[in-house]
Amino acid sequence: VLAAALDAGISPDSVWESSGFDQLVCGSQWAVDNYEGGGSGPVSVRDATRRSVNGVYGRLMEKLCPDRVADMAERLGIPKIPASQRVPSMALGSAEVRPIDMASAYATLADMGEYHRPTFFERIDHRSGKQVIEQPSKPERRISAALAWQVNDILKGVITGGTGVAANIGRPAAGKTGTNQAYRDAWFVGYTPQLAVAVWM
């Protein structure tokens, strides 16, 4: 949602109402509550991201609608999201996504907009020195470096002063926490320029 919003020209410093709501969004009734960061009154996109304020992201989804957000997710590296899962609540995690795909999408951000297909290995060397197999990753430009930089800049705030401060490892890093209703699922995806990791419990 963040990348789609920035790509649509929404400023990270634009201010949105942060309270929860229950209303029609892009043709579907949707109730949004704030679980982690709370929310009431106006909050910037940057601060809402840092504090995980769902009310702001619900309103961003209302502006963007699911297809635009799903298309951005797919550009970043998430496999095609079925029409049945392209609903407003996907903004807060209702679509099914595997951890490897989440790590891959955030790795696209880490590599300044270049996607690398996930693979279990790139190269195997035999003890004789003979190379057994090599499968180097071929990058694909998926989003502009400028858009990736902007998303990265905002997601650094999650680590330095938001819901992901426990992941502050003392070097440049960015990421996002995520928790669904009743805390059935908890996510953290974090990355440095060289490494992206997704954790799902």
Describe the protein's architecture and organization.
By secondary structure, the protein is an alpha+beta fold. Helix content is 32%, strand content 22%. The protein is built from six helices and eleven strands. The strands form five sheets. It has a three-stranded antiparallel beta sheet with strand order 9-10-11. A two-stranded antiparallel ribbon has the order 1-4. A two-stranded antiparallel sheet has the order 2-3. α2 (45-51) crosses α6.
Task: Kindly list the characteristics that best describe this protein.
alpha+beta; three-stranded antiparallel sheet; two-stranded antiparallel sheet; globular
- Portion of residues in beta strands equals 15-25%
Globally, the shape reads globular
- Overall SS class: alpha+beta
Tell me the major beta sheet: 3 strands, antiparallel
Helix content: 25-40%
According to DSSP, the number of beta strands is 11
How many H/I helices? 6
State the end-to-end distance: 22 Å
What is the N-to-C succession of helices and strands? HEEEEHHHHEEEEHEEE
Rg over C-alpha atoms, rounded to the nearest angstrom: 18 Å
Task: Indicate the mean pLDDT.
Answer: 93
Uncertain stretches of 5 or more adjacent residues: none
The strands making up the biggest β-sheet line up spatially as 9-10-11
Q: Would you spell out the secondary-structure blueprint of this structure?
A:
Layout: H1 2-7, E1 15-17, E2 21-25, E3 28-32, E4 42-44, H2 45-51, H3 54-64, H4 66-76, H5 99-110, E5 114-115, E6 123-125, E7 131-134, E8 140-141, H6 145-161, E9 174-179, E10 186-191, E11 196-200
Antiparallel strand pairs: 1-4, 2-3, 5-8, 6-7, 9-10, 10-11
Helix pairs in contact: 2-6, 4-5
